[in-house]
Amino acid sequence: MCSTAIDLDAASTLELVNAASAIAAELARRTAPESAPACIQLAETLAATGDMQEAALSGLIGVVDAGREVQRWGYPSTRAWLRSRLGMREARAKERLTLARQRHRLTDVSSRWAAGQLSTGYAATIADAVTRLDDHDCAAAEDILLDMVGQGFSAGKVASFGRRIRDVIAERDGREQAPDTDTRRGYERSWIDSTRSLDGGRYIKGWLNAEDAAIWDGTLAPLAKPAGTDDHRDLSERTAAALNSVLSGGHKATKVTVICDLDTLTRGTAAARLTDGTPMPAQQARRIALAAGVSPLLLGRGNQPLYLGHRVRFATAAQRQVLESLYATCAVHECEVPGTLCETDHVHGWALGSPTDIDQLALCCGWHNRWKHANPTQIHITTGPDGRHTYRILAPPDTKPVRPPPPKLQNAA
């Protein structure tokens, strides 16, 4: 049996965090007991402990978010910091940020959560449900959803109720439902959220008001009809194909860069790739080439003017095409903004004499491009053998180490 040499009442928050880290490390090293009944009890206790730890983490994230501290460290948003620094996936980062921003309005949820009486799953479900509610309706929604939790409803059931919470509140208060806010505000409240999947695809969810929904139906419905008796796609698949057809403009407005060698375009089997690194079978690359034509991408001195010196400030289209083949994302390490949405950056600053040559350019998102100019001493630049520049952001100069060695675990007498 081990215990930490720390006085809980007198310890600082930093000391408590380090003690929790040491205990977690010791638990992770141990082998689970062979007794299944014992493991059930231990798992339930440890899960409740994890929920209380999540409550503490939410408080810390809330302070970081409110103080905009992450921008001093070169992160454009708190969510970007959660993804890059804390290693969270997009869905988890969004959930933790929502909890941190809503917990001050959910006083009962926060107190139960911190006391281990409410799981993180329920807390996150309620926080997500009240995000678009005003303070008055938020309090009412909290009471309703916590009552559902007390009755034993699953988190999924609570989430379903949360999606129609305005109607539920109106029914409970015995008043007529007010005109929907999204309808009153016209186009301002339509929203679409998307997250990238591990295989390079994208999950999409959202809500459209009546006007936008009418445009959606009028544009996509005719295109989503079955192509014939042999079209076995369901409506969802046909709608996705219709949306892609509209976005691509029938091959008139599409810009798709496929990187491959000449052999792949003829008869080879080597995989091609998109600018974000997603692999593409050779057969699919040839099909795109036949439909859209082929534009040569020269990765050096050749028929395209890639080296312009200091007399020209802005990169050419040919240079931009080369850069998009090198940079799947922003040059800043851990920044996830796609290279196709980034700005062309002079690595050492055009005003400082850096030429507009292909080996002196990189792709950098707009936020980091401005941040790099304002904080030149916090950028460390390295260049790989492929000519790709990587920007690494250094800690602010006034930052002190915040991770002293954790307290040692001592054997109890």
From TrEMBL:
InterPro entries: DUF222 (IPR003870), HNH_nuc (IPR003615). Residues 44-324 form the DUF222 domain. The lineage of its organism: Bacteria, Bacillati, Actinomycetota, Actinomycetes, Streptosporangiales. This is DUF222 domain-containing protein. Pfam families: DUF222.
